[in-house]
Design goal:
CATH class of the largest domain in chain B: Alpha Beta
Shape of chain B: elongated
Largest sheet of chain A: 2 strands, antiparallel
Distance between the termini of chain A: 37 Å
Largest interface: A-B, 40 and 60 residues
CATH topology of the largest domain in chain B: Rossmann fold
Strand order of the largest sheet of chain A: 1-2
Distance between the termini of chain B: 132 Å
Radius of gyration of chain B: 32 Å
Oligomer: heterodimer
Order of helices and strands of chain A: HHHHHHHEHEHHHHHHH
Largest sheet of chain B: 6 strands, mixed
């Protein structure tokens, strides 16, 4: 394309390496997740990654793009991993396949492939699944410590045929979902033990996983793959909003502690809103973006129709990115 | 911390391996007079100088062979005594690879100086001294090659308070300034005092990167006694040697692209330029040689003091030739330099460094991937631009928008390309967009001129038509009155008489 011109030196991690570092950042969280929820996590990840790479391969062929160059960039791998981590571990296989296909084919390649997607691909896949299969997507497995009777054979059954034959004691709604229903029905809720399910065990598991993602996030920050702007703004905003409501009426609103450590809050803070392609590029823009996502996440969680609002919040804020970027251009050296 | 010690860090920049040590272990070697000298006439920014010699003329060392044409120009001097063999178009060190006018001198090896005339500047005054500098041939030796007399002359329009001496030398590999300071710091300090007085500046700050401890010691040794000269050590972050970045590092003043430092009371000179000015005023020696770093993939990388016009091939040979043969050479630094079309060219005023390309510089650039908007480039940009936006806009030919994102503030330092994970040749895109915009503006200007011409032509045609009509009307009016009218009346009467006579004849 060009005759080689200056600069003649280059020292940058390749896109592939950047993506692999993201995967490395996800590893502590993934390991904790597997440890607490069992083999389902691994199955989800495997199905998602295989589907993603196959879909990527065929689409690249179809689009006449150099397959080897793009399939090794690692972006499909990251998107598939993030999606798999968002889907309940007791979802049947076809749920994951559908979600991954939406992620790779629609959200990524139909918008132009690597670098061109307007929306966070994993969140598009998740949103499609949540809207299409709300029953499957809101039923979560209980942490392993409470279901010694949930063996691999049962898992396989769930994996192939869904949860209809499954005894209720291994699955439940998430705490956020449960509390929302209780509030909606104007019933009191007890976080220690109520509705016949051990919320505490959920929180304990959730806290461990969240902290693992936090450690992975710190690693990404240390490796300078992400800057502080997005995760810190997101977490601070979510804490502040939930704190205000909680102080107004602790019996109706959850504490900031629960908001931070439940759902995918930390996964979202460090790995989902930090997707560079669909996010803003300016430092100020990143602050506005994360603030917007946190605000929407809280509103959807507390006042919206879905138990978890990260996917919708991210997709909505993705729409605002061009505007945010153009309004937050930093001052150029020496300009007034 | 004292305010004078404070360093104002600019955004981004890069910490590349400096690779300077390979060419600093041996002192500067002075090259003897070569068999031929090829002097390109265009070695500076501005007009090509006017040739003052003919083929076959004998010239003395330091004699002007081409005179500055106008004030934005610089003279060319004979680097040694000899005869003018030819004046012809030959290859010059320029990225285009196109030949340009050169004067070829055959040295007589006597190295006979012309009558040197040192300048007693205190006697003749600063203004006269600066005028004389027009004939010194001195241009910015840091690589910019801007005629120095113009930079010294700014005090006539702007009051200069601070002289900043650029000893940063931030590009990897280049060591000619480092070596100059190490070996000639006494002359440099004297030169600084002189330039400071010529500028009317109150103080001088020498900006030097912290990777040159020996040079720094030398500077401190000689500048200790001078209260008006301070040395400021800046961190080794490319591009700290860029004029506006260095001013910010030292003074904390951010000067935008379209403004000149002089408007802020600051003037900057490179160390080598200062020594050249000193030698011209003190000894009457014009700009005929420079120090050049020959480094990189060579057996003996080092610095040479060379007469302008010396063949680069000779220097490469002297340095032992390439270790790994690839016949690729870069002039300037690896970040902003350019590939030389050939080494059969001569050393010029702008040639501060020639790098024999290392393996990593040659690598066929990895296939570029699409931009993933990671904004590493924005983090690295010392001008605080948004390179990723400029890239999109340049790539999609949205030039107006690119300009509104301050494309022309880009200094093409290459930091963005250096850090890009997608291997995008970003700077090339900016160069492309800039050249398109400039070409567009020229075309627009030409179109404007053409339209004006056409408008004027229409106006002129109308005016001529009107004038003609007026003239005719006037003539008619004149015809109907005065003597002419009488004459015509008489003639008409005569005709009428003749006609009536004829009629009468016929009747008869």
């Amino acid at each position: 394309m060009f005759n080689q011109q200056s600069p003649f030196l280059q020292k940058a991690p390749s896109v592939t390496l950047v993506m692999m570092l993201v995967i490395a950042g996800l590893l502590p969280g993934i390991l904790a997740y597997i440890f607490l929820f069992g083999i389902g996590v691994l199955l989800n990840l495997t199905i998602a990654i295989v589907t993603a790479l196959l879909a990527e391969y065929f689409i690249l062929k179809l689009r006449n793009l150099p397959v080897k160059l793009f399939i090794t960039d690692g972006s499909a791998l990251v998107a598939a991993t993030l999606l798999a981590l968002s889907i309940p571990t007791i979802a049947p296989w076809w749920i994951i396949v559908i979600g991954t296909l939406f992620t790779i084919v629609v959200a990524k390649h139909m918008y132009g492939g690597l670098g061109s997607n307007l929306f966070n691909p994993a969140m598009v896949g998740y949103a499609v699944l949540l809207i299409s299969f709300p029953a499957v997507m809101t039923k979560w497995q209980l942490p392993a410590s409470h279901l010694l009777d949930f063996n691999i054979a049962q898992k396989m059954e769930v994996f192939f045929y869904g949860t209809q034959n499954l005894i209720d004691s291994v699955s439940s709604a998430t705490p956020l979902d449960y509390i929302k229903t209780q509030i909606f029905l104007k019933r009191p809720f007890d976080l220690n033990f109520s509705y016949g399910m051990p919320l505490n065990s959920y929180f304990n598991a959730s806290i461990i996983i969240s902290l693992s993602f936090f450690i992975g996030g710190l690693f990404m920050w240390y490796k300078r793959i992400i800057t502080w702007h997005l995760p810190i703004t997101y977490l601070v905003t979510l804490t502040l909003i939930s704190c205000i409501f909680w102080l107004i009426d602790p019996s109706r609103y959850l504490s900031p502690f629960i908001h931070i450590f439940s759902g995918g809050t930390l996964l979202c803070a460090f790995f989902i809103i930090t997707d560079p392609v669909s996010g803003p590029t300016t430092p100020k823009g990143k602050i506005f973006f994360a603030f917007g996502v946190a605000l929407l996440v809280y509103l959807i969680r507390v006042f919206g129709g879905y138990p978890e609002g990260i996917a919708f919040a991210v997709i909505f804020m993705n729409i605002c990115v061009p505007l945010i970027d153009s309004l937050t251009q930093p001052k150029v050296f020496g300009h007034e | 911390m004292n305010l004078i010690d404070k360093i104002f860090k600019f955004n981004g920049g890069i910490k590349a391996e400096t690779k300077k040590a390979i060419s600093t272990s041996i002192p500067i070697e002075k090259i003897t007079i070569p068999k031929t000298l090829i002097l390109p006439l265009r070695q500076h920014i501005g007009n090509m100088p006017k040739i003052m010699v003919n083929i076959g003329d004998y010239v003395l060392k330091g004699q002007i062979i081409a005179e500055a044409d106008g004030s934005v120009s610089a003279a060319i001097h004979a680097p040694t005594s000899g005869t003018i063999r030819s004046i012809e178009k030959l290859l010059v060190p320029h990225p285009s690879g196109l030949p340009d006018y050169c004067v070829v001198i055959l040295p007589d090896m006597k190295d006979q100086w012309i009558q040197k005339s040192p300048i007693n500047w205190k006697k003749i005054g600063i203004d006269e001294t600066i005028k004389l500098l027009l004939n010194s041939g001195i241009v910015g030796l840091g690589g910019a090659a801007f005629p120095s007399h113009l930079k010294l002359g700014v005090n006539q329009t702007n009051k200069i308070t601070t002289l900043i001496v650029n000893a940063a030398e931030c590009e990897p590999y280049i060591t000619c300034d480092d070596m100059l300071i190490r070996e000639r710091s006494e002359e440099l300090i004297k030169g600084i005092q002189l330039v400071q007085e010529l500028l009317g500046a109150k103080e001088t700050i020498i900006g030097i990167e912290d990777n040159k401890p020996i040079a720094l010691d030398q500077l401190n040794l000689f500048s200790k006694k001078q209260s008006s000269i301070t040395t400021k050590v800046v961190p080794t972050i490319y591009p700290s040697g860029d004029a506006k970045r260095l001013i910010y590092l030292i003074n904390g003043i951010k000067i935008p692209k379209q403004k000149r430092a002089a408007e802020y009371g600051i003037q900057m000179f490179n160390v080598a330029t200062i020594v050249a000015i000193y030698r011209f005023i003190q000894f009457g020696e014009p700009s005929i040689s420079r120090i050049v770093t020959i480094t990189g993939n060579l057996h003996r990388p080092k610095n040479y003091e060379v007469l302008f016009g010396t063949s680069l091939r000779d220097l490469i040979k002297k340095s032992g030739g390439q270790i790994i043969k690839n016949d690729t050479y870069i002039m300037g630094g690896p970040m902003m330099g350019f590939k030389l079309p050939s080494i059969d060219i001569s050393v010029t005023k702008t040639m501060n460094c020639v790098i024999s390309a290392e393996e990593e510089m040659l690598k066929e650039k990895k296939e570029p991937l699409p931009c993933i908007r990671c904004s590493k480039c924005a983090e690295a940009c010392p001008v605080e631009l948004q390179p990723q936006e400029l890239f999109w806009l340049s790539k999609s030919d949205q030039f107006e928008k690119a300009q509104s994102y301050n494309l022309f503030d880009c200094i093409e330092c290459g930091c963005c390309s250096y850090v890009c994970p997608s291997n995008i040749p970003l700077v090339q895109f900016y160069r492309y967009a800039k050249s398109e915009i400039i070409a567009d503006n020229i075309a627009k200007e030409e179109a404007d001129i053409a339209r004006e011409r056409n408008d004027f032509r229409i106006l002129r045609l109308e005016r001529e038509k009107k004038e003609r009509a007026e003239r005719n009307a006037k003539r008619k009016l004149e015809n109907n009155s005065g003597e002419k009218a009488k004459l015509i009346a008489e003639k008409r009467a005569e005709i009428a008489a003749a006609v009536s006579r004829t009629i009468n004849k016929e009747v008869n």
